[in-house]
Amino acid sequence: MDIKKVKNPLNKLMQDRRSIRKYDPSVKISKEEMSNIIQDAMTAPSGFNLQPWRFVVVDSDEGKELIKPYMTFNQIQHETSSAIIVVFIDNNSIEKIDDILAAEVKYKLRDEETKEKLSSRIKTYRADYSPERLLLSQMLDCGLICMQLMLSAKAYGYDTNPIGAFDRENFANAIGMDKDRYFPALVISIGKAAEEGNDTTRFSVNEVTQWK
Ligand SMILES: Cc1cc2nc3c(=O)[nH]c(=O)nc-3n(C[C@H](O)[C@H](O)[C@H](O)COP(=O)(O)O)c2cc1C
Prior knowledge:
This protein has a single domain (19-195), classed as NADH Oxidase (3-Layer(aba) Sandwich). With 212 residues, the protein is of the alpha+beta class. The chain is built from nine helices and four strands. It has a four-stranded antiparallel beta sheet, sandwiched between helices. The protein binds flavin mononucleotide. Residues 18-19, 21, 74, 161-165, 186, 197, 200 line the site of flavin mononucleotide.
């Protein structure tokens, strides 16, 4: 099947994003701009809208020093990036369900009665999750926010690298997060590119898609 290429703002952004591993170390991203990048990314969907992601933006020299030993072979990103964003899963994300639903009542998206019913239904449903199922489902949520975060950063003129090769066992404690509650899903370096990304290839749709 021949596919005719379409151009739209999103596919331009997606094509322009590349993993960048070396950044201009003189570029800092302000707290305000970083907050905008993250807030925009948080339009991502998540199971029950629980938004289980928690971010730690490591942008100070002291903070970077704490995580350096746990960045394995990803030292250039660590040294040159404006910040390292650590995306954690909150294993207790269910605790916020009533706050989330209360906000929906406040903004008149839902009434009090359906809020109460939904809250109890979600809590009952989630109570049956095994730790493995919880991890799988929240990793999926975090994958979605991470992708949006990288595209959001690109739209603000910054580059990123998703980093999975880090010491997951010790990362939470290194930056003062309770490791029993917070699991580091992914680390993302962010900054202004100081080199081009590698050219990469992708499968064609035909190679990876079945039609039934
Ligand atoms: C979950 C995940 C983990 C990754 N871990 C690393 C990593 O530890 N170090 C690194 O340099 N790149 C890492 N990458 C980046 C991939 O190598 C890169 O996305 C892939 O080669 C495609 O290149 P592109 O991002 O430029 O399109 C990771 C990507 C993903 C999605």
